[in-house]
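#struct-help
A.M.: can someone run this one for me? Single chain, 273 residues.
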Amino acid sequence: MCGIIGAVTHTPVNQLLYDGLLLLQHRGQDAAGIVTSEGPIFHMYKGPGYVRDVFRTRNMRDLMGNAGIGHCRYPTAGSASSDLESQPFYVNSPFGITLAHNGNLTNSEALKRELFQLDFRHVNTNSDSEVLLNVLALELERAAHHAKLDANAIFAAVAGRAQALPRRVCDRRDDRRLRIARLSRSVRHPAVDHRRQRIDGRHRIRCRQRIGRPRGAGLSVLRDVAPGEAIYVDQTGKFHARQCAENPQLDALHLRVRLPRPAGLGDRRRVGL
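D.P.: on it. Structure tokens below:
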């Protein structure tokens, strides 16, 4: 399990991403990273350790831009000791894409071989997240018409390989745009948060995994991302959503279990999963 967060705002986004990763620190303690977009330029910094130890003031100053994603890593695939597997990952074609991913691809080795043999794409680490990035980049290259990247091309790319990617959540951003997809059989899911800027009345969109009650003044939950659904937020903050998988379903059976009442706690009850 890892922590992922993305945001599109009208103000510098670096502090918002950092604060969000602190709230998601319990989901991964091995590494942390942030990438922001300033026009056509990506600014990235990542490294091993806790969020508070990875980022210094000088690093935060370099993370300029009004859109970005962040990740804190709990290694379930690849090597826990490899700094190269810290996220987000970056690929320069097409358009330039960065990705932060939570979950496991159970067919990552087969996909890696297919990427190399058929599409001549090289995966440089043992991380299944880098495999996912290249798979989605390839589909986006096929779906985009010349140099035009729009919501239809993005959703077509997600749908193109939705059935080949088993489960879990991915969060992608490309050139000042934020994109989130929850795969068709995913159990874990992010919430999509919305916050209103108090000064100029503008809105900003923040997407992250649910971590309890919304924190911060003016922050409210819009809704959860549905299984098989992709969400696209452009640089102006316009929100797009589309179902990109056929017959999406959940794998897990959620049970409500009444736990034994600890002595001395009166009539309080706990309900667990």
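A.M.: thanks! The first strand starts at residue 3 and ends at 8.
D.P.: also worth noting: The chain has six helices and 15 strands.
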